[in-house]
Write a structure and sequence with these properties.
The structure holds 2 protein chains of 2 kinds. Chain A is built from no helices and 11 strands. Chain A is an all-beta fold. Chain A starts with a strand and ends with a strand. Classes of the chains: A mainly beta, B mainly beta.
Chain lengths: 111, 110
């Protein structure tokens, strides 16, 4: 039982490049989330998916798109990366008693 | 979701109990108290949650006052690996939005 996994662990992009962050969970959870955490700051919700086939915007969705590919996987796409998107990205899933389980994070730098 | 107030930082001696307070005076009847922690550079980790009764699990205990306006997370025998930022979050159980405030930096010292 790996919990929540994320790939890649680290990524460096140039401004304007695109990439997709992958997230998968093996706990059979319905809801999944994408957060970003800037240095010294708390987490901010980007997008979430309450169930397979649905997605909703969070607090800071601009510049991102998501896909809930199936129950296990929830990906986050940056179409045209900007330096302001330099951050650590965390994926999470929602457990049976509404606690969230987080992945190890993807550290993204946009130059 | 109700706002929470936590001390900025606390120190604790290794092996002693760490008691982390949280004030949530505007908590509503259907809001739960959740605790998470984030060890440096790692993803946040769920610790415990409760509604009004005290709760205990293998990681910690949660004491909620009778009026539910404050709570205390207790790590019974703190170790160096418990050094982390601890977040107290008040929310409805079914809500999707998890708002992390500044939290409390707990430093466990040998």
């Amino acid at each position: 039982n790996a919990g929540v996994t994320q790939t890649p662990k680290f990524q460096v992009l140039k401004t304007g490049q695109s990439m997709t962050l992958q997230c998968a969970q093996d706990m059979n959870h319905n809801s999944m989330y994408w957060y970003r955490q800037d240095p010294g700051m708390g987490l901010r919700l980007i997008y979430y998916s309450a169930s397979e086939g649905t997605t909703d915007k969070g607090e800071v969705p601009n510049g991102y798109n998501v896909s809930r590919l199936n129950k296990r996987e929830f990906s986050l796409r940056l179409e045209s990366a900007a330096p302001s998107q330099t951050s650590v990205y965390f994926c999470a899933s929602l457990g049976r008693t509404y606690e969230q389980y987080f992945g190890p994070g993807t550290r993204l730098t946009v130059t | 979701d109700a706002k929470t107030t936590q001390p900025t930082s606390m120190d604790c001696a290794e092996g002693r109990a760490a008691n982390l307070p949280c004030n949530h005076s505007t908590i509503s009847g259907n809001e739960y108290v959740y605790w998470y922690r984030q060890i440096h550079s790692q993803g946040p980790q769920y610790i415990i949650h409760g509604l009004k009764n005290n709760e205990t699990n293998e990681m910690a205990s949660l004491i909620i006052t009778e009026d539910r306006k404050s709570s205390t997370l207790i790590l019974p025998h703190a170790t160096l690996r418990d050094t982390a930022v601890y977040y107290c979050i008040v929310r409805v159980s079914y809500g999707n939005k998890l708002v992390f405030g500044a939290g409390t930096i707990l430093r466990v010292k040998s």
